[in-house]
Each structure stands twice: as structure tokens, then as C-alpha cells.
Amino acid sequence: MPSFLKKSFVHLSVAIGYAFVFLILYQFAYASFIWTDQSISGFWVSITSSSDGTKLAAVINGGDIWTSTTSGATWTDQTAAGSRSWRSITSSSDGTKLAAVADSGGDIWTSTTSGATWTDQTAAGSRSWKSITSSSNGTKLAAVVLGGDIWTSTTSGATWTDETAAGSQNWYSITSSSDGTKLAAVINGGDIWTSVDSGATWTDQTAAGSGYRYSITSSSDGTKLAAVINGGDIWTSTNSGATWTDQTAAGSRNWQWITSSSDGTKLAATVGSGDIWTSANSGATWTDETAAGSQNWYSITSSSDGTKLAAAPINADIWTAMLPSVPSVTTSSVSSVSYTTATLNGSITNNGGYDASQSGFAYSTDPNLVTGVSTSTLGAETGDASFSQNLTGLTPGTAYYFRAYATNSIGTGFGSIVSFNASPIAGTLSCSIATSCSSGAIIYRMASTSNSHAELPSQSHYSNLVCCTGVTGLSNSCSGTYTTVLVLASTTNSHSGEYGVSSYPNNACISVPSGGTVSAGYTSSGTCTAAGYDTTLGSMISSNNSHVGSPNDYPIKICASATGSSITFTTDSPTESFGTVTPGNLYATSSILSAATTNTDGFNITIKRSNATDTMSSGSFYIPDKTDWVAPLSTTTAGNATASTTQLNTLQFRINLTGTDSPDYSSAWWGINDTTNAVFAGISSTTQMIIDRSTAAAATTTMKVLYYLDVPISQQSASYSGTLTYTITANI
Questions:
Q1: Are 32 and 594 in contact (CB under 8 A)?
Q2: Distance CA 217, CA 258 (A)
Q3: Which helix or strand (DSSP H or E) is residue 667 part of?
Q4: What SS3 state is found at 622?
Q5: Which CATH architecture has domain 33-322?
Q6: CA dist., res. 319 & res. 255, Å (int)
Q7: pLDDT above 70 covers what percent of the chain?
Q8: Which of 372, 371, 322 is nearest to 351 (CA)?
Q9: How crowded is the C-beta side of 539, counted as CA atoms within 13 Å?
Q10: At 4, is the pLDDT very low, low, confident or very high (cuts 50, 70, 90)?
Q11: Domain ranges of the chain
């Protein structure tokens, strides 16, 4: 009989053909950017940002290139490219690839190390370069020459093509879609030109008219464009430049530069000897960001979500800004789990611009935290901070779900839902006098229920049995983890005595599986429960040479307590998702199982899918499963089912070597590595053992379950889901 059974459920989901989007609407009209003077001054003429806004790069005309990996808080002077008449700089989305141009007969320079080292790309020649732009991966570049042509590269700047189709013009600025196929460039004193084939052909977009356009920016897909006129208005397009709207709300100003979020909804523009202006609705309305002050603003850049800005003025400091948001919160794993207590852990990883006025946890036995939710309030937190809460009064062996939260003046941010199990009480020892003991252990026998002789459980002369139950694996063995509750003068028809007082040679014992606890004792002043024990086996007239009886007969009570080995079992999340997948491609997700036990024989874990026919389904549609494990042969270790290598067009899983502690991993079952010898299996509708650990795990041990999904080309578009059951059992 297993020592313990603990179950954990993991819900798998996938959307095929379309995405399910949880939309959070931020009301930008109610929050202003928070601006910070980064106290680094120079004749800044261009600044660029990684997509997350943490990596910045800026150039000084007549100076060096500077970079930051801390959203502008600290800067590094990148001297490798030298001091030059830098004019423009651009970045890949991850900030590792940079490209900068110098005017007045300078070259194009590139870096693949976030600015630490640079290469002079002489292939395009020395020209009066004015502006440069990059695809998100940094492989496609496009640069314009003031009084010259547009040049493009598909090799990160190693080779260049002179795109003569748009002609030699006073090109002033150029922008690119994230894939580098759609380009848009402006002429100072001329029109806007666009290309949909990476610069091979160009269209003169006359709808916006001619003007002294200094800067143009693009959404990541190239459909939304925005351009500024120095001494005029801001103009926007939602159809890649075919038609344009004069956005008069911000007024006619000496606009210098404009930048856009990846979706084109959030814009920011600079005014020479003026302010910075922002829009959260694609330019329809604008906010004057007076907090940064009126300066000779020049260049500005934005994170992809539009919440972080960095602006570079001429002969002044770089300023950065962030749009306040709800705090970013992480729910961490639970710690110090016991039968009735646990410590919840969480952290604020980004306070959203304002310190949290409240923080805490929501927790419940409901996996979705909808019903029976308790919410704690731990108080305010300053900056990015960690916080914890000690829970008490938990129900042993029960699954709980929780997530951290923090609230600032913008709203409340939540971490993900994490689950844990309160440690189960392995059993409460209970003993009574009975005439049969089929589900427990006989500790000793009595001739009658009062004033009686006793005999060892191995004898069969007496029919009154002291039967103990409540702890799985309980026995009357006098070896292993055991205690002696009574000593007898002989094996049968015997007087009895207290262990440690009487010298009788025959022991009556209680034992539990390894990792459990057991104790016995005697009290003559009250009950066994009052003395701290679980149960009363019987009573004696005296501590030696005594008759025995039922618990209430005599003043000396025979007491005992016992527990089996403890075990805990958690998963990192009750839900795992493949997201939106495209048939014919391989996708992966994983679960992290965590367990601990004092049982010296370890534990095993099994898996089972809920549906009899398939693991993931949507109505009558289902995703094919890899071939199930076959039943183990009689010559193999229990649970060592036969698994095979990866099977196309199916859902499959394996225990991953990386991420799984060594004692939990079987190379015979799952292969000797995670690559060429990795073995995968289908998820069966019958219980199958996937982990068999043979030693105790006093500290928490972890196991990584890797799920692979390769959907057939013919798979119906739908949202598929299913439930897996993991069960842990202590080995005996």
C-alpha cells in the first residue's frame, strides 16, 4: 500500500490559427511621463533605443558614441569608433547591433557588440550621410545622403546597394519596418518617398505635399507613418504613405524629430528651442511634456511599447522618461511549507514610476482565485522590493493557489498564480481493543479487556487485540523505525511491564516506514492526549509485573504517537500554454515539478491524461498524441514503459535531463542526453510512472517535464486544451 498519494493537475492549452488576447487598456490621458535629467551633456544629434528601452546609444556631432544599458542611468564612452562628425545612429531591437553614420564625407560604422567594438564599413563610401535605419534584427540597413542617394544593405553593413530609383535628393531622414521591407524617407524641402521592396523601387507620396521635413518614423509593420515639418505641422499616415492627415492639434512648430511605438499609436516629437510633445492616439491629440523643460531638443527615441522615451538636445543633457504604469509583480515559489503553515513570496520588479502604496497576496484553494479568496495587506513598498507573508491555519495535504500583487497610484499589478500543497499529516495514530484488525497492526493481545494477561502479536491464544491504525505502513516490527510500548515476561499468558522499568525480555513494538516518527510512553496523571500523545493503547495496574486492561481500567496509561514519512509536491503553474501555433512547426513548453520527502526509499511520480481518447481537444476536434507507452514487461522495473523517439504531427513529452535533479532522472527511460538520444513518449490515458527516486529528498528536488507539439498541417483552427494528472507516491 502506498505511503502517500498527492496529485497535481496541469492544464495544457494551445490556440491554432488565431490568438486569444487579454487586452489591458491604459488610459494614457490620465498619466504624464515622468522625466529624469541623466546629467550627461553634449552636442547630441541622434539617439536610439532597444525595443525594451534599456539599451540606449547616442552620438555627438564632433565627439564620440555613448551607450547605456540602464535606460540612461549610467553611460559608457565608446571610443573605439573615434571622435567624428556623427549624424545618426540606429539599433537592432535587442540593442546588440548598432549602425552610425558621419556627415561631411564620413563613413558608415557598425557594431555587433552593443558599441564595444566597431567596424568601418567602407563599401558605401565616404559621403554626407544624414540618417540611417535598421530592421529589428539588424541585418537590413538603409541610409540617406544629403544631396545624394539612398543606400541599402542586407548584410548588416558589409555590402551596400546604391538605390538610384528615388534619385539624388536632399534626403534628411529615413525609417524602416521591423522586417526592413518597407522604407520611408523625407526630403528637406521636398516630398515623402516610400518603398515596399527594401528600397529597390520607390513611390513619390505627393499627398502630404512638400515641406522642410526633418524626420519620419514608422510602426513595426510599416503601415503607420508620422513625419514632422520644421516650421510646420506633424503629418500622419495609416496606409504606408498613400494618404496623409495634417495633425494640427500640436500646432505649427520648429519640429526636429519624431519617434513611434511599434504599433504606431504612441508618438513623441521634439521642438528646437521648445518642448517635447507626446500623443497616445496616433497623433490625433497631443500633450505638451513641460516637465523636461524648453530646450534645443533634437533627437528622440522610444521603446517598442511607447512607455519609455529618451531625448537628446544640442549642448545639453540627455533626458529619459517613463510612462507610469501599474507595478510589475512576480510571484515566487512558496517556502517553509509545513502541515499548517507556509511562507508566500513575491516581489515588485518595476514599481511603474510610483512607489507601491499597498502590497500583499491573494490566496485560495480555487486554482483560478475566483472563489474563497483571502487577500492580505502588507503595506507600502519603496522602489523594487521583495515581500513575504507567513500563512497559518492551513489544512494539511491541501492544494493552495496564490499570487502577489502591488498597488500604486496608477492601479494594481498582479503576478502569476503559483500553487503549493500544505504538507500532509502522514497519519494520526489511533489504537483500540478489537476482535479483528484487518486494516491495522496488532501490537499485543489480551486474554480479556480487563485485569488480563497479555501475549505478543505473533501468538494466537487471545482474541482481544490492541489494534493500531491511521499511519500507512504501520507494523508491529521491532526493527527499523520503531518503539517499544510494552515488555512481557513471556510470549503468552504473561504479566507485563513498562519498557525501561521492567526487565522482561519480550517486546511489543510499533514501527513506521523509514522517514516517519514513532514514540511511546506512560502517564499516571491524566490522559495520553494531555501528555502529548496521539492515542492510548491500554492501561496497567503497576509499572512492573502487572496485568493489563482497556484504557480506562487502571491508572497507568500506555501511550503512543506515530507519523509516516512527510512528502510535499508542487508544480510551478497549474496552467501551461503553447500560445498560438502554426501547423507544421515544432513548439515547446514545460512544467517544473518540485518534491521533498523524508522517506529514505524516495518516491515515484506518475502521469495520466484526463480524456480517454486524446490529451488536447476542442469539441470534436483533437490533436493527435504520440504513441502511448506500452505496459511494462515482467522482466523490467515497474513503470519502465517503452518510449520511442520524436514522432511528427503529435503531442509528446519527456523528462528533461537539464532541469531535473540527477536522482530523479532515468537515462534508461529518457535517454542519456537532451539532444541526439532524447526519448519522448505519448501521454497515456492510464497511469504511467515517469520518475522513480530511490532516496530521500530532504531539500526540495526539481524535475522538468518538457512538452513538444508538432501540429499536423491539416489541423482544424481552434483553441485546444486538456488536463494532466501528476501523482506522487512515497516508495515503501
A1: no
A2: 6
A3: helix 667-670
A4: strand
A5: 7 Propeller (2.130)
A6: 18
A7: 92
A8: 322
A9: 19
A10: very low
A11: 5-17+582-730, 33-322, 328-421, 430-563
Q: What is the DSSP track for 386-425?
A: EEEEEE-SPPTT-EEEEEEEEE-SS-EEE---EEEEPPPP
Please state, as a whole number, how many other Cβ atoms lie within 10 Å of the Cβ of residue 347.
Answer: 20
- Residue 396, pLDDT score: 65
3-state helix, strand, coil in the chain (%, to 5): 5, 50, 45
What's the rounded Cα separation, in Å, for the pair 159 and 316? 36
CA 552 to CA 540: how far, in whole Å?
10
Give me the pLDDT at residue 326, please: 92
Our CA dihedral for 299, 303, 309, 313, rounded to 10 degrees, sits at: -20
Residues 6+ positions from 10 with CB-CB distance below 8 Å: 571, 573, 574, 575, 576, 591, 723, 724, 726
| Cα 42–chain centre separation | 41
Distance CA 696, CA 712 (A): 43
**Tens digit of each residue's pLDDT (9 = 90 or more) over 162-190:** 999 999 999 999 999 999 999 999 999 99
- Residue 397's pLDDT band, with cuts at 50, 70 and 90, is low
The closest of 55, 52, 125 to 89, measured between CA atoms, is: 55
Three-state SS string over 525-589 comes to CCCCCCCCCCEEEEEECCCCCECEECCCCCCEEEEEEEECCCEEEEECCCEEEEEEECCCCEEEE
Is residue 138 within 8 Å of 95, Cβ to Cβ?
no
CA 214 to chain centre: 43
Q: Are strands 5-16 and 575-581 parallel, antiparallel or unpaired?
A: parallel
All three cell numbers of 429: 495514530
CA dihedral 268, 269, 275, 278 (to 10 degrees): -30
Amino acid at residue number 297: W
Residue 590 has a pLDDT of 93
pLDDT at position 385 is 95
Q: Give the CATH fold of the 5-17+582-730 domain.
A: Immunoglobulin-like (2.60.40)
* Residue 517 per-residue DSSP state: E
Question: What is the grid cell recorded at 659?
Answer: 532541469
64: region left, alpha or beta (phi > 0 left; psi from -120 to 50 alpha): beta
The answer to whether 404 and 417 are in contact (CB under 8 A) is no
**Closest C-alpha to 326, from 22, 31, 21:** 31
What is residue 206's three-state secondary structure?
helix
Same fold, 5-17+582-730 and 328-421: yes
Cβ atoms 470, 430 nearer than 8 A: yes
The CA dihedral of 271, 272, 273, 276, to the nearest 10 degrees, is 30
CATH number of 328-421: 2.60.40.10
Instruction: Report the candidate in 62, 104, 69 with the shortest Cα–Cα distance to residue 83.
Output: 62
Question: 610 is written with which cell numbers?
Answer: 484526463
- Is the model's pLDDT at 632 over the cut of 70? no
